[in-house]
Amino acid sequence: MIRPADRNDETAIARLVAELASRATTEDLRTRFIRVLEHPEHRVWVFERAGSVAGFVHAFIRPALEKPLEVVVQSIVTDGTVRKEGIGRKLMEEVERWAADSGYTSVALHTRNAAAFYRRLGYDEIAAPSFMRKVLR
Question: Which of 57, 79, 110, 118 is most buried as measured by Cβ atoms within 10 A of its Cβ?
Answer without folding.
Answer: 57
